[in-house]
Amino acid sequence: MSLLTDTAGAHAPRQTSKTGPRGPRESRLAVITATGFLVVIAVYMLLPVFWLIVSATKSQGDLVDSFGLWFSDFHLLDNLRALFAKQDGVYLPWLLNSLLYAGAGAAVGTLLSAMAGYALAKYRFRGRELLFSVVLGGVLVPATALALPLFLLFAEVDATNTFWSVFLPSIVSPFGVYLSRIFAAASVPDELLEAARIDGSGELRTFFTMSLRLMSPAMVTIFLFQFVVIWNNFLLPLVMLQDDRLYPVTLGLFTWQSQVSRDPSLQILSLTGSLVSVVPIVITFLVLQRYWKAGLAAGAVKS
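The structure assignment produced for this chain is given below.
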């Protein structure tokens, strides 16, 4: 019997293991295919940014005559000086307006979204699910469909062409409310809230001292999304504002680009201004990414 077993074992093909110390190993073809696909996607997404960087370093003549995807004579510093000096330095107020609209709007919107999502997740009241369904419906409504109704509402109270006509609509984020409810339901234990109430802590104190810390990863995510959305907002300022000193940088650069036929120098200034306008978004993401990862890691350890 043992002889038969040994003979069968000798002729049986050996199965090579494809598992490594960290789990199953992918085949070389799958790794090459996935890597190649990611490289193509990365090139597709980064090519416009590279073109913008290259174009912002050129003069107006080189922008037309030289190859678009490579550098020519370096004129970035001259372009920056001309950018901030054009029309009595109007670009700097545009940039500060965008920082104010996006920074303050994202901060207030994130807090309101966190409070609303927390209430929908942790309190039981009549009509809660109906209200949440309305919020989900708000996620599906495009911002372009709301521009004209918002203009009519602000016109009724004579508030168009003001800071508030752009700021107040920006602090509403149905997606932020949705994400806050999902995260609050998963990360804020009901037992912790009950213990806080037994100790005599009020609802507001419990929310601001305990719940917000547990919800910090979601709040950073909401802030980043809201900041980018407000920064790139174009249609609402276009509808609401007439004073160019209140323009955000997106609308200001659009007005310059629309005047290129009369003043060709505005083309290179618009490209340089577009490059400068990307910098605050990149800085915001890089700064908040650390806290985002730290909050996620802390939540994983606590759970």
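Interim note for the steering committee: Confidence is low (pLDDT under 50) at residues 1-17, 297-303. The first strand starts at residue 19 and ends at 20.
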